[in-house]
Amino acid sequence: MKTSPLLLSLGAALLLGAPALPAQDPSPASAPEAGVKVGSKVGWLADWTLPLATGGELRFAELLPKERKPGEKPETRFIVLTFWSCKCPWQIAWDPEFIAIQKEYGPKGVKVVAVDSNKPSHESLEEIQARLRKAGINFPVALDKGNKLADLFQAQTTPHVFLIDHQGRVLYTGAPNNYAYPDRVPKEKREAWLRDALDAALAGKEIHKASTRPQGCSIKRERKVRS
Amino acid sequence: MQHQARAQGPQLRTRRPPGPGRLAAAGVLLVLLACGGGAEEGNPAGGTPAGEGAAGAGPAAARAPLEALALDEALGRIESLAAEGPLVVNLWATWCGPCMEELPFFAAADADPAFEGVAFLGLNGDHAVPDAAPLEERLERIRGEAGATGIRFPSLYLLTEDLQAVAEALDLPTAVFPQTLLYRGGRRVRLHEDAFAGPEDLAAWLREGLAD
After folding, report:
1. For residue A143, which phi and psi values (nearest 5 degrees)?
2. Could you give the 3-state DSSP secondary structure of residue A58?
3. Checking DSSP bridges between strand B179-184 and strand B187-192, what pairing results, if any?
4. Looking at beta carbons, which residues of chain A come within 8 Å of B174?
5. Region B81-105: what's the mean pLDDT?
6. Is the pLDDT of residue A2 over 70?
7. Which 50-109 residues of chain A touch chain B by CB within 8 A?
8. How far is it, in rounded angstroms, from Cα B13 to Cα B154?
9. How distant is the Cα of B182 from the closest Cα of chain A, in angstroms?
């Protein structure tokens, strides 16, 4: 199996400890319109590179290559992009679900990618790294300085999930499921929205519930977005 | 709104200040709440999960009025209050740091003569996050933490674990905390889906929403 440089850098950083944040501002080359919904095309993400909380960089171009040789199959079929927090009790409750999805769906070409857009005065790098170690997070967590990516996606909560295919089309947005705390929701009432969307997408079928209400904590932005 | 208010015990009153009788009643209520038996020292054992909890109430902190209600009953209460005059509803929880940071802004607005006649009501979402503490103990902790922020208007502790249901019932696009709703003439006229940056930010938002 081919191992991506992204995962290598993540793994190395986890093993060796996390170096300081890169100094450069990871601004995008393009300026897409703000607001991402089901059906939006976010191929512009390929222009984005964000620093990882564990050191190294998250290069979206590796997940969403702009060019592919004829007949070449994408290494990453679907991206589960979620806005993330190291403190929000809802994110903490849902972290095991994201970990499980990465484990179960990773071999099928799904990559979970988390972005922390909270301002550093609310969530410091040290706090984020401590949470990654404690929770055993198995997916990259990138830092969105100045909440630029969160603003472009108009992400509202942590978590706020966007399922993206290898062509950059958004297939699902919203919450992971309706059972952040599984013990509190009877099995017959559980709705696994993200898993259902992934199963349908992997099978090439229509996603029945492509949009749900994002649920969680607000993103603590550097700049306020007034309603 | 389709939900009807249901009477349940002594209802907490908002501080809509037209009559001296209501002011006196509110004063008595506050004294009763403040004398309820000492102060909280932060979260009790088995409290909210590691998260965004606010500082606990100090030794002399007053408690904020808080009543536990089912979601339907809370909606009925909102409907009743909104029918009486302008109403500000703020969704908050002690697990939500920005909520606790902005509660003092609401305390200031509640006390601001510019907003006389506007009622303030909190909707508390603490029940949605598991807590091993008994309900009454939990309510007391929350009253203390809210009181420490300076708010004296009442809040309703929503007896539901389902924030999606809360958002659906209130017709909110996201189930995020905090959020603030402004009602006029019995209907919602404004929604703010984030924390306010400061008391002036809230005051400006209210002025805009209350202007004709």
Report:
1. -110, 125
2. strand
3. antiparallel
4. 156-157, 213-215
5. 97
6. no
7. 87-90, 92-93
8. 6
9. 13
Of A122, A220, A227, the CB nearest to B193: A227
**DSSP label of B37:** S
Nearest to A52 by CA among A167, A129, A148: A129
Q: Which two tokens stand for residue A140?
A: 């990259």
How many degrees, rounded to 5, is the angle at CA B113 between CA B111 and CA B114? 115
Reported as a single tens digit per residue, the pLDDT across B147-169 is 999 999 999 999 999 999 999 99
pLDDT in tens, A201-223: 999 999 999 999 999 999 999 86
Res. B16: pLDDT tops 90: no
Nearest CB to A217 within list B50, B96, B173: B96
Residues whose CB falls within 8 Å of the CB of residue B206, separated by 6 or more in sequence, listed in order:
B88, B109, B115, B118, B182
Beta bridge partners of A216: B176
A88 — pLDDT class (breaks 50, 70, 90): very high
Residue A47: count of CB within 10 angstroms of its CB? 18
Q: How would you class B11 by CB atoms within 10 Å of its CB: exposed for 0-12, middle for 13-18, buried for 19 or more?
A: middle
Phi-psi domain of A172 (left: phi exceeds 0; alpha: psi -120 through 50; beta: other):
beta
CB-nearest partner of B51 from A92, A156, A215:
A92
The number of angstroms, rounded, from the C-alpha of B66 to the middle of its chain's C-alpha atoms is: 8
Using CA atoms of A192, A197, A202, A208 in order, give the dihedral in degrees to the nearest 10: 120
Task: Please report residues of A whose CB lies closer than 8 A to that of B168.
Answer: 213
φ, ψ for residue A110, nearest 5 deg: -105, 135
Residue B5's CB is within 10 A of a number of other CB atoms, namely 16
> Which candidate, B192, B187, B158, places its Cα nearest to that of B173?
B192
Residue B192's SS3 state is strand
Cβ–Cβ contact A157 with B under 8 A: yes
Please provide the average confidence, as pLDDT, over all residues in chain A. 87
Which domains are delineated in chain A? 36-57+80-218 (3.40.30.10)
Angle between helix A193-202 and helix A89-105 axes, rounded to 10 deg: 20
**B53: amino acid identity, one letter:** G
Phi-psi domain of A139 (left: phi exceeds 0; alpha: psi -120 through 50; beta: other): beta
Q: Strand, helix or coil at A25?
A: coil
* B192, pLDDT greater than 90: yes
Shortest distance between the Cα of B178 and any Cα of chain A, in A, equals 7
